[in-house]
Amino acid sequence: MSGSQSLQPDPSAIGRLSKAPFALLPDAPRLFRRRSERFEALAEGSHLSPYLHFLARLTAAQADIAAELPVPVPIASEQVERARANQMPPLDRNVMIAAPGPQDVVDRFLTAIEPAEKPRQAADALRGLREATRETREAMLRNVAADSIPFESLPQHVYLSAAVQIYAAKLAGTLDASRLVPIGTGLCPVCGGPPVSSMVVGHQGAEGARYAACAFCGTSWNEVRIKCLACGTTKGIGYKAAETEGEEATVKAETCDECRSWVKILYQNKNPSLEAVADDVASLGLDLLMQETEYRRAGFDPFLLGY
Amino acid sequence: MNMELSRRGFLKVAGAGVAGTSLGAMGFGEAEAAVAAHVRPLKLANTTEARNTCPYCSVACGIIIYSKGDIRKKERAEVVHIEGDADHPTNLGTLCPKGAALKDFVSSPTRLQYPMVRKPGSDRFERISWDEALNRIARLMKDDRDANFLAANDAGVPVNRWTTTGFLAASATTNETAWTTFKVVKALGIVGFDNQARV
Question: Do B48 and A238 make contact, defined as CB atoms within 8 angstroms?
């Protein structure tokens, strides 16, 4: 995630202002590995421990598969340029899921998570999914691509979302970040999806800038701070977090009085361990508290649907 | 645009808070309930982040002011932190040492909060009303200008200058304010002058 990994001192960086890069494309194995490790760390002593351990296993499987998977055929440069000219996302989700690549990833993922310890409902859903016909799975994948998850088969869609994330992140990783353009507030410039959460980063070259994280393809993109990620207004933005003694919260709800929605904001500049998806799930308490308010959650995370 | 939003109402009704969530549906309802029990006694606190302009110099860096409490929700807000605004084109999040110490400037006990005057011969400042202050300033400016305004120099060249009074205006102003200030001050002939319109 960080802009510079070098330990070598670089005096030329002193006193020079650099504009924060617009998009940070995912390095799929690293993204999922870090997420898995974060889930594991968060599970220690958490009330949500069983679920976090389970997701640590799922994301570890994502990382393993992402590392083994060959680099997918990149999106055609004409398509990227056409998308760029029309401010459209270059990654067409429906085209992507219809290809054989993601189907194969789904099979590998479902096999890989078979041994993971899980409750009966989760085990039943996994078995059902492995036995499901190709047509059923394809229909479910289309729901995943549309971010429209039917509640009656939620667990199956959670697994499929996780599987598709692997391929989408690999594919997003083949793009050239400098050819991406903003396509709208709160929309991923690669796949057009809504953000899970946003994060104020502290890494070199982007100190204090805010990046929104895509749930589908793992891309992070720069968004102006103190702005609603659901409707784009800069008026009536507030922040809510559970009252604590002394220490300032590093995960807050960014609320908008114009459209009455909220999205989580993570202050990675205060706590470098924060991870967009893992800390979204682990801060479920904030979602429960926000349910009592007039605001609706606008962040999208397949691992945390229904709040 | 965001499909999840349109579906939310439906999920809540259908799931009654358990089956309608990823956790409930995957069989982690117990963990979810544990979190719910843990947060039940907790209260949400409001904080705000507001964009502003550093008032020190004419570079006019963008800043973000963090406060506890939200005045829009009829609460008292207290400034807790100020940092550079990374989205501002002038400073991209950076601040000079003076700007970085702005919070102490805001909450300083010696900060000027209302007009004060130290009369000639006095050893202390006294608080006065805005009306008194403006009347006094106008009176003193008029007297000083009448006494010291120079319409022409020794050679008889018209100069229209007033060198015995200076004027210093703040940087956190709009173009319009800066323009008006400039015109008023220069129309009076004041030479010693600095404000945002200089840059």
Answer: yes
DSSP 8-state assignment for residue B191: E
**Contact in structure between B192 and B167 (CB atoms under 8 Å):** yes
The full length of chain B comes to: 199
Domains recognised in chain A with CATH numbers: 28-172 (3.90.1670.10), 182-304 (3.90.1670.10)
Residue where the block lists tokens 């000219």: A85
Nearest to A194 among B2, B44, B70 (CB): B2
Pairs across A and B, CB distance < 8 A: 178
Q: Mean of the per-residue pLDDT values for chain A?
A: 93
Mean pLDDT of A200-228: 95
Angle at A7 between CA A5 and CA A10, to 5 degrees: 100
SS3 state at A63: helix
Complex ipTM above 0.90? no
In this complex, do A154 and B25 lie within 8 Å of one another by their Cβ atoms?
Answer: yes
Domain region containing B131: 114-141
Task: Tell whether B30 and B52 lie within a shared domain.
Answer: no
A28-43 and A49-68 helices, crossing angle to 10°: 160
B182, B70 Cβ separation under 8 angstroms: no
Task: State residue A15's pLDDT score.
Answer: 63
Residue A5: its pLDDT value, please? 60
The domain that holds B87 is classified in CATH as 2.20.25.90
Cβ within 8 Å, pair B22-A154: yes
How high is the mean pLDDT of chain B? 88
Residues of A in contact with B23 (CB under 8 A): 51, 284, 304
Asked if B162 and B122 sit in the same domain, the reply is: no
Q: In angstroms, rounded to a whole number, what is the distance separating the alpha carbons of residues B93 and B61?
A: 8
Q: What is the structure's pLDDT at B11?
A: 44
**Contact of A300 with A193, CB cutoff 8 Å:** yes
Q: Is the pTM of this model over 0.90?
A: no
Of A205, A195, A269, A214, nearest in space to B64 by CA: A269
One domain for residues B125 and B77: no
Residues B52, B73, single domain; the answer is yes
Q: Are residues B42 and A232 in contact, defined by beta-carbon separation less than 8 angstroms?
A: no
A181-A185-A190-A194 Cα dihedral, nearest 10 degrees: 180
**Count of domains forming chain B:** 4
Q: Model confidence at A57, in pLDDT bands (50, 70, 90)? A: very high
Mutate to test the interface with A, among B22, B32, B46, B83 (most CBs of A within 10 A): B22
**How buried is B68 (Cβ within 10 angstroms: 0-12 exposed, 13-18 middle, 19+ buried)?**
middle
